[in-house]
TrEMBL record:
This is Glucose/galactose transporter. Keywords: Cell membrane, Membrane, Transmembrane, Transmembrane helix. Residues 10-415 form the Major facilitator superfamily (MFS) profile domain. Its main location: membrane. It is found in: Cell inner membrane. GO terms for cellular component: plasma membrane. The keyword Lipid biosynthesis does not apply. Gene3D superfamilies: MFS general substrate transporter like domains (1.20.1250.20). The lineage of its organism: Bacteria, Pseudomonadati, Bacteroidota, Cytophagia, Cytophagales.
Amino acid sequence: MTKSKSFFSPIVIIGMLFFIFGFITWLNGTLIPFLKIACELEYAQALLVTFAFYIAYVFLAIPSSMILTKVGFKNGMAWGLVVMAIGAIIFVPAAQSRSFALFLTGLFIQGAGISLLQTASNPYISILGPIESAAQRISIMGVCNKIAGALSPLILGAIILEGASDIETQLKTSLAAEKEVLLNELAGRVIVPYIVMAIALVLLAFLIYKSSLPEIDTSKEEADTASEAGEKSVLQHANLVFGILAIFCCVGVEVIAGDTIGQYGSSLGISLDVSKNFTSLTLIAMLVGYFVGIVAIPKFISQNKALMGCGIVGVIFTLGIIFTSGFTSVAFVAMLGLANALMWPAIFPLAIKGLGKKTEFGSALLIMGIGGGAILPYFYGKLAESFGIQEAYLILIPCYLYILFFATIGHKKQSW
């Protein structure tokens, strides 16, 4: 752990990074209805947006840990931003050709860059201070992340989905040639925003590279016991293995709540011009949860008890979605943000506790769990097509129950 008495400057820098990848991550909720129209997709196909983005974590997390071992945390963060910029620039030819495959390629590359960024920044902020208050620091990062997430769909939605309901109506009555012109014009709306994004990411990468961000030597972190630290495989840490599945469920339910709410509102007859902003409601609810975490952890409530509350509240709100209708049901989807807020901040430090010099590799395995954001929303989409978009939210209940298990039992098991 760094010996610096003040963590303010590193926290500000890492907060900027969390803002950036929060902004980009939560654009997916806007891209789903946008690409559904522009590329003429079915609902489950449109959810491949989240699949392409989050599946990158599964493939790139372990290579990311190897990169960090070679180049260090700071340089790893800078390279992550550069990779994200490459993914953003691919949106230009994707829009020009209206190629869904190219859009997915750009999203995958962006996900790869964020995988490197996440693999560096999450353990960095966790071990920058006492592990007992890690959830508090990650909650601060979550505030940065979700403020960006609340803003991004509003900003991008205002640009690329302006007049979306009118466009949908025109497409239904247009001849083939007119339809092609409309769709090309719609697809072209993403070009300028993503060029600006790519430039901003490269500039930030340069600033991070030149910054005074201190390096952290994880080999000095406290392990579970001195003998076990040298002998145990990382997978012998049961809390880590349980934590990987907890992250899988956590990110899956978070993505479903944030990225499907707009389409869910639209399916209930709410205009797309209104429902395109619903993702921001979920993220505002998450912000409220993060502020609770900053104030309450660890002074008033422990990390694991906060996580228990998240699991219980998640089940209750999911039942609210199923057994209500209209705006009330949509409001329960938004309020899932409150249940989801403290899950990641609590799971991550509980899962890496006692890993010592294996922290980078253990963190990479946890980052692989972000693949839940690829798989669970896609299954949600398939369930929605088969049983109904409202009934498909039942997939959330076993996820919240598992998180409750991790909070009560799973995190305590340091070995098998």
